[in-house]
């Protein structure tokens, strides 16, 4: 079913990548199935930000699962938000938690979890996990599907 959504600044418009996560505007749209318990997933296998110490790029595979309430996260704004980290300095933990909290603040989900699966730098991979709320009862929540880092072993 097609529904006309108005008031969005980025979807359907030319939108440059914001200069920083602070400047990025996440947007939301009404959930046409509010009141139905389900899980939506965003996967970003090529997330990048900069190490705040060395300035070198850090790479992660992010997986965001959430149980929407009244609102859905608008995907183009989310893509631009993630891209805004490319020139931003953040430790792995800070980037992962900041992304999760920004989504929670905007869409007020019943539940959200984010897994930040970071590629090794200096020989150490750092995976970061954060959860908000309690998963709705009876909802199928699949594994995030990202294997722990094993190197050559």
From TrEMBL:
Chain residues that bind substrate = 73-75, 92-93
Q: Which reaction does it catalyse?
A: 7-aminomethyl-7-carbaguanine + 2 NADP(+) = 7-cyano-7-carbaguanine + 2 NADPH + 3 H(+)
Asked whether the UniProt record includes Oxidoreductase among its keywords, one would answer yes
- What pathway does the annotation place this protein in? tRNA modification; tRNA-queuosine biosynthesis
Cellular component terms (Gene Ontology): cytoplasm
List its EC numbers: 1.7.1.13
- Keyword Ribosomal protein on entry: no
Q: Which family does it belong to?
A: Belongs to the GTP cyclohydrolase I family. QueF type 1 subfamily.
Function in brief: Catalyzes the NADPH-dependent reduction of 7-cyano-7-deazaguanine (preQ0) to 7-aminomethyl-7-deazaguanine (preQ1).
Annotated protein name in UniProt: NADPH-dependent 7-cyano-7-deazaguanine reductase
Q: From the UniProt record, report the name of the gene that encodes this protein.
A: queF
């Amino acid at each position: 079913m097609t529904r006309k959504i108005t008031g969005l600044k980025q979807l359907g418009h030319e939108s440059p990548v914001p200069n920083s996560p602070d400047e990025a505007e996440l947007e939301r749209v009404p959930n046409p199935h509010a009141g139905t318990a389900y899980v939506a997933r965003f996967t970003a296998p090529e997330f990048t930000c900069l190490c705040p110490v060395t300035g070198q790029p850090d790479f992660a595979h992010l997986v965001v699962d959430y149980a929407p309430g009244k609102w859905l996260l608008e995907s183009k704004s989310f893509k631009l938000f993630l891209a805004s980290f490319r020139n931003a300095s953040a430790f792995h933990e800070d980037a992962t938690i900041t992304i999760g909290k920004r989504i929670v603040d905007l869409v007020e989900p019943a539940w959200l979890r984010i897994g930040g699966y970071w590629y090794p730098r200096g020989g150490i991979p750092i995976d970061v996990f954060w959860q908000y709320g309690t998963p709705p009862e009876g909802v199928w929540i699949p594994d995030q599907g990202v294997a722990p880092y094993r190197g050559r072993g």
